[in-house]
Amino acid sequence: MTIEGAQYTAIELDGIRRQLTEHAKPECPRCQVAMTRRPIGGGSFGLGYARQRDWLICGKCKRSALFDVQRGTRN
Predict the structure, then answer these.
(1) Continuous segment of H or E residues that includes residue 21
(2) Which residues, in sequence order, are CB contacts of 20 under 8 Å at separation 6+?
(3) For 33-60, how does the pLDDT look when each residue is reduced to its tens digit (9 = 90+)?
(4) Cα 54 from chain centre
(5) pTM of the model
(6) What letters, b where the CB count within 10 A reaches 16 and e where it falls short, cover 22-55?
(7) DSSP letters for 22-51
């Protein structure tokens, strides 16, 4: 019996990131359902630290991924 992990694999995260950087609507690699995108701001703009992140959530399996918008990397 194989139990799927609660988190996306590195390969799955890379696929989501690729969709995000290509400005496509990201899709959950396990459910093939469009992911909900929630922008997250943070940091202090006056101090030069202001991260803009996207939190992508699958409405079906509830898995999620967090990416740094400017760098296109996973947080």
Answers:
(1) helix 10-21
(2) 26, 54, 56, 67, 72
(3) 999 999 887 655 555 556 678 899 999 9
(4) 6
(5) 0.73
(6) eeeebbbbeeeeebeeeeeeeeeeeeeeeeebbe
(7) TT---B-TTT--BEEEEEEE-SBGGGTB--
Q: Is 56 exposed, middle or buried (0-12, 13-18, 19+ CB in 10 A)?
A: buried
Query: 55 by DSSP, 3-state: which?
Result: strand
The structure tokens 């969709």 sit at: 19
- pLDDT for position 49: 57
pLDDT at 11: 95
Half-sphere exposure of 14 (CA within 13 A, CB side): 3
Nearest to 61 by CA among 2, 4, 1: 4
Tell me the per-residue pLDDT of 1-33, one tens digit each, with 9 for 90 and over. Answer: 344 678 999 999 999 999 988 888 999 999 999
